[in-house]
Design a protein that fits this description.
It comes from Eucalyptus globulus (Tasmanian blue gum). Pfam families: KWL1 (PF24300). This is Kiwellin. Belongs to the kiwellin family. By secondary structure, the chain is an alpha+beta fold. It folds into two domains: 35 residues, no CATH class; 138 residues, Barwin-like endoglucanases, CATH 2.40.40.10. 14% of the residues lie in helices and 26% in strands. Strands 5-9-6-8-7-10 form a six-stranded mixed barrel. The chain is globular and about 55 Å long.
């Protein structure tokens, strides 16, 4: 009887250990926590520990959210091309002394992926120049043309001053004028190879987090 009584006393402890030692495999929805692709519902994928729409599939399961710098900038419509949908923006996040942005790479030379000549001066540029195109909202109808902006890499901590020569069009795309590229996101600093080199970044990565301000 003592032996049976001891087993009965130990049983709740064993059950308790089993309950708390089993890992959770809950399926997460939009912006829910995740560790692997299987942790997200439907076509959502795990990016930086949260479930998001798959950019390669073009799903829009999750409600649109403001860009990283906030400011309440919402899409101005949707463009459909190449069997995918892309939000269009006429605005960008507010410019501050440390504006969060995504750095991408643009070939500003003739025949490059920038499409037509730069909007500021209707000219092509050598990629050895430290130059950038800004998203439509930041381009502000060309009011920043010729101005210098200071860009700082979040990864390397290095900074560079580059001249604004073009718009990264957030309203139009998918045509010859835009080298058949989709509309630009609203938080993009599209830099030449010289800008990437000055920041100590690898163009092959494709995108890097930066901050920028007027120089």
């Amino acid at each position: 009887m003592k032996y049976i009584g001891a087993l009965l006393l130990a049983l709740p402890i064993v059950i308790s250990i089993n309950l708390f030692s089993s890992p959770s495999h809950a399926i997460s929805s939009c912006n829910g926590p995740c560790h692997t692709l299987d942790d997200c519902t439907g076509q959502l994928i795990c990016i930086n520990g949260k479930c998001h729409d798959d950019p390669d599939v073009g799903t829009h399961v999750c409600p649109s959210t403001p860009s990283p710098s906030g400011g309440g900038c919402q899409p101005s419509g949707t463009m459909y091309c190449q069997d995918k949908s892309y939000p269009k923006y006429s605005c960008s996040p507010p410019v501050t002394s440390s504006t969060q942005a995504t750095l991408t790479n643009n070939d500003f030379s003739e025949g490059g992926d920038g499409g037509g000549p730069s909007e500021c001066d209707s000219s092509y540029h050598d990629n050895s120049e430290k130059i950038v195109a800004l998203s439509t909202g930041w381009y502000a109808d060309g009011s920043r043309c010729g101005n210098g902006i200071k860009i700082t890499s979040t990864k390397t901590g290095r900074s560079v001053t580059a001249k604004v020569v073009d718009e990264c069009d957030s309203m139009n795309g998918c045509d010859g004028e835009h080298a058949n590229q989709p509309p630009c996101r609203n938080n993009i600093v599209d830099g030449s190879k010289a800008v990437w080199d000055a920041l100590g970044l690898d163009i092959a990565v494709g995108e890097e987090d930066v901050t920028w301000s007027m120089a």
